[in-house]
Amino acid sequence: MVTAIVLIKAETNRIPELANRIAATSGVSEVFSVAGRYDLVAIVRVAKNDDLADVISDKMRHLDGIVETETMIAFRAYSKQDLEAGFELGLD
What we know:
Layout: E1 2-10, H1 15-23, E2 28-33, E3 40-46, H2 49-59, E4 66-73, H3 80-88
Antiparallel strand pairs: 1-3, 1-4, 2-3
């Protein structure tokens, strides 16, 4: 599984519509409306790196209302939930 975090600057009046359209895109697991330099953050989870191009470059970048994006590819995931699950299994 390959995970990418896509930071999105959007036209202000199109944020809710754009968030819904991005969330409906295959490969996008979550979209957050955020405060700060960016308006939306999309979490993309796909099977392989090549699939990132399909989701981000081919589908998302063509959506009206996106002004700018920055994509970060995750190397590893660390999660409190994952750690707690490990302890429940008796792993050290």
